[in-house]
Amino acid sequence: MTVSIVEQHSVATSPIRPFHLAFPVHCLAAARAFYGEVLGCEEGRSSDRWIDFNLFGHQIVAHLVPGSAGEKHRNPVDGHDVPVPHFGVVLERADWDALAERLRAAGTVFGIEPHVRFAGQVGEQATMFFRDPSGNALEFKSFADDAMIFAT
Q1: Which member of 40, 86, 103, 129 lies 3.0 to 4.6 Å from 112 by CB, making a disulfide possible if both were Cys?
Q2: What is the pLDDT of residue 42?
Q3: Is the pLDDT of residue 70 over 90?
Q4: Measured between alpha carbons, how far is residue 110 from residues 7, 17, 82, 139, 142 in Å?
């Protein structure tokens, strides 16, 4: 019997390894201020073309690519126009609440305000969308039940 890589790394049975994501930004100073100061990400290695950040234990890398970031597409989800592409992290609810407050205190403009979607349904989740200074869309969410993250 063959077991897929997805089955081998089930959320319920094993710790998740950190992911790596590289994304374009138009200005490294603005990225450093947003990811470091607003989101509170620890900075790792950097050069004059990129910066590593620790995003809740995951490695994200802001690469200087002037003019390449920003909105591409939108898809309707639960009455909202969700920006595509986007990235973020599934947080514990207390961490999600704290991040929402941190973003509000920093004057962050939300594309989709912090709220609960799919209330009372499979996959109920708190979610929020906002953009970094280069226009990259981020979503942070917290599931009412983490067992529902990959529910169908």
Answers
A1: 129
A2: 98
A3: no
A4: 35, 29, 12, 10, 17
